[in-house]
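Give me the fold.
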Amino acid sequence: MSVRTYQRWCRPEGVRWDCRADAARPVPHNKLCERERAVIVDLCNEPRYRSRPPAYIVADQADEGRYIASESTFYRVLREHDQNHHRGRHKAPQGKRPPTTHVADAPNRLWSWDISYLPGPICGSWWYLYLILDLFSRKIVGHEVYAAETGELACELIDKAYWREHLAAKTKPLILHSDNGSPMKAATFLQKLYDLGITPSHGRPRVSNDNAYSEALFRTLKYRPGFPANGFATIDEAREWMHQFVCWYNNEHRHRALNYVTPAQRHSGEASEILARRQATYERARQAHPERWSGDIRNFTLPNQVHLNPEKAATC
């Protein structure tokens, strides 16, 4: 036993009992006697309750005007008699940590990046697309196509995006989220993030939807008309196609999640003025023909915050 443990147990009112997990503890004064515990076991083994959980049994007994013990006591007694096990063909519930979540309230606060495969000239050959997305504006702030998947190439990607977005002059921190791939956790890449003042963030292992923004963008890219499904003949061809796609996506693509403004307009702050003009147009149209409007005009606002993985409200 350490000295600190002994000091923690010694209090002015007296020395506490042994608090170690495997220590013998004093019997609570309100513990059920053996007869009462046997009543719980016999009740749970009755034909009407043998397939019911303790929560159901306690509620049903209360409907009959009878109280034996609390729900937690039922569980405790059943565990002691080795009668509390998972049943059924479905897998037993497992405790999983909640998904990593961050909030962005302006551009260059939260980025998401990932690597995807671009088909090569023959079956089984690939070019590797490195892509960084700003979650607040949906703008592609960095992309490269390489012939390998390494942490050193990821350093080159983040370094270019950092200086292109002028982050050296920013004071608020940037979070870079990714999955658990080997380039994302490479020591050289993590050191580069620390040097640039970027905070790394990673999704849960073996969970495919913790980086949904990047995955959704890859789907948009690969289902874009003109995408060469039969493969890119050379890496230069892949780079040229990606350059055209990024120019279209950032500057021409009216994003549905952005109320049909482009990511570049949202990133630069022009979106608010554009949406305000749309709203004024609709207001004039309603004033000109109020009989055609049964309710409010369309909502032209954009959210002030974007969540990486929004926490789901608890439902009963």
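The chain has a mean pLDDT of 86.
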